[in-house]
Write a structure and sequence with these properties.
Elements: H1 5-34, E1 42-43, E2 49-50, H2 57-85, H3 88-103, H4 105-111, H5 113-127, H6 130-141, H7 147-155, H8 157-174, H9 180-200, H10 213-220, H11 225-228, H12 236-240, H13 243-273, H14 278-305, H15 311-335, H16 342-367, H17 374-398, H18 414-426
Antiparallel strand pairs: 1-2
Helix pairs in contact: 1-3, 1-5, 1-6, 1-7, 1-8, 1-9, 1-13, 2-3, 2-5, 2-16, 3-5, 3-9, 4-5, 6-7, 6-16, 7-14, 8-9, 8-14, 13-14, 13-16, 13-17, 15-17, 16-17
């Protein structure tokens, strides 16, 4: 009898997360070929035909920032919805929003920039569902000894989606189908993936007919009541007072901000500065995220299964690989020429992703005036490298493998009840109601 239904859940969830990410990333590479599309061309002041899609640097930044604004708008409402109602329906809503906004993007681009910005805003709202989904799905469906693997696989969706989308978009750009089919094909794939999600996912493994008794025992082994029952009580005050949590968020911001910078601007850098053609640009822009994805899988297995190294040392090793090494590599690129309450912590990392979508264009604007000047690009790479190395060093001093005190706080103990009362006072007017 099949006793690994959780792996089916993991795979479908991973592809659903990747779909939300891919759909907002498509335009980063199609910018290159859209600017040469004269099908809906306009006549310029000097009576020459120019592309409707030849966006200026400021217009490109608006298109990117629209997604960032959407993720800011959607992050905490989605986080509340996931905690309150589980992952199935809120995540499906994110998928539907992404399907609609992605499928209509070519039409919006042909009509007007404001219409395109509205759809990009909706894509951002849809994209904001992902990290909250990871927290809830992991808590529900991962045994304790597989949680690192689940998180490693699901959080690799950004790199995987970048690899798939850059490769596919480059192919469509150079084919007879054209850049529009990069959006249409992703829309079709997203419909298929979220249809599977709707069919196979349930929030409660105990009520899923595909989960065997043996697998259910494994899912519940050594978990506390608080871990088995996701409650919307969160000790916000205690969490926010913990320095290690802030250092963790700094690491998340540094890593995601740097990764976002690469995802958004690497195609432009490879094509406009290093002068690669569109096909080669797509291949090179996809290769880094592919390596990143494979590394995350190895690190997840390493964290869960290797027992001869202490948990604290494994944390430090993995963090150096995640932030320290990329920090050094960012500098080298610049030199080149030619467990419990995890849903809240992860949701703030999701918010950091929203911040990263703002900071990536800012870092670009700070240093780059000429998109083809390799020296100006170098300064942005240096800044990213510095932030990654700094956050990696701070992690060594403030973070370890021991559960923080707030993980011991629940609704049922006196400290938890006291903090619950404080949270109710702090959140008064937020629309969060207590149940008896």
């Amino acid at each position: 009898m099949f006793t690994y239904y959780r792996i089916v859940i993991l795979i479908v969830s991973f592809f659903a997360l990747s779909a939300l990410s891919s759909n907002y990333l498509i335009i980063n590479l199609t910018f290159i070929c859209m600017q040469d599309d004269l099908k809906d061309g306009m006549t310029s002041a000097n009576q020459t035909l120019v592309s409707r899609y030849a966006y200026s640097p400021s217009e490109k930044s608006l298109i990117i920032w629209a997604v960032a604004i959407g993720t800011v708008i959607g992050t905490f409402p989605f986080n509340f919805a996931f905690i309150r109602w589980g992952a199935k329906i809120p995540f499906l809503i994110g998928g539907v929003l992404s399907i609609i906004s992605t499928g209509l993007t070519p039409l919006a681009a042909s009509l007007s920039l404001p219409f395109l910005l509205v759809l990009r805003l909706i894509q951002g709202i849809a994209y904001s569902a992902d990290f909250s989904a990871i927290g809830v799905i992991t808590l529900r469906w991962a045994p304790l000894d597989e949680m690192s693997i689940f998180i490693a696989v699901m959080t690799s969706f950004i790199s995987f989606s970048t690899f798939i989308t850059n490769s596919a978009s480059a192919w469509f750009c150079t084919s007879s189908l054209g850049w529009r089919w990069a959006f249409y094909s992703h829309t079709i794939a997203t419909v298929v993936i979220f249809s599977l999600w709707m069919l196979i996912y349930k929030d409660d493994p105990t009520k899923h007919k595909r989960v065997t008794r043996d697998e259910l025992k494994k899912l519940q082994k050594d978990k506390t009541k608080a871990e088995l029952e996701i409650d919307y009580f969160v000790p916000y005050t205690a969490i926010l007072k913990k320095v290690s949590v802030w250092v963790l968020w700094l690491n998340g911001l540094a890593l995601i901000s740097s990764l976002t910078f690469l995802i958004i601007y690497m195609p432009m850098y490879l094509h406009d500065v290093l002068k690669f053609d569109v096909s080669t640009t797509g291949m090179l822009a996809a290769s880094g995220p592919l390596i990143h994805t494979l590394t995350k899988y190895v690190s997840g297995f390493f964290s869960d299964k290797v027992k001869i190294i202490s948990e604290n040392k494994k944390l430090q090793i993995c963090n150096v690989l995640a932030t320290g090494v990329p920090g050094i590599l960012f500098v080298l690129i610049g030199l080149a020429r030619h467990q419990q309450y995890a849903h809240f912590v992860l949701s703030v990392i999701q918010f950091m992703k929203s911040v990263a979508l703002f900071t990536a264009p800012i870092k670009w604007y700070l240093f780059i005036r000429n998109e083809r000047d390799i020296t100006e690009w170098s300064y942005s790479f240096y800044l990213n490298g510095f932030l990654l190395i700094l956050s990696s060093i701070l992690f060594f001093f403030f973070c370890n493998d021991q559960p923080a005190e707030f993980t011991k706080i629940t609704r049922d103990n006196p400290t938890g009840a006291k903090l619950l009362e404080e949270n109710q006072q702090d959140d008064e007017g937020d629309g969060i109601e207590e149940s008896d």
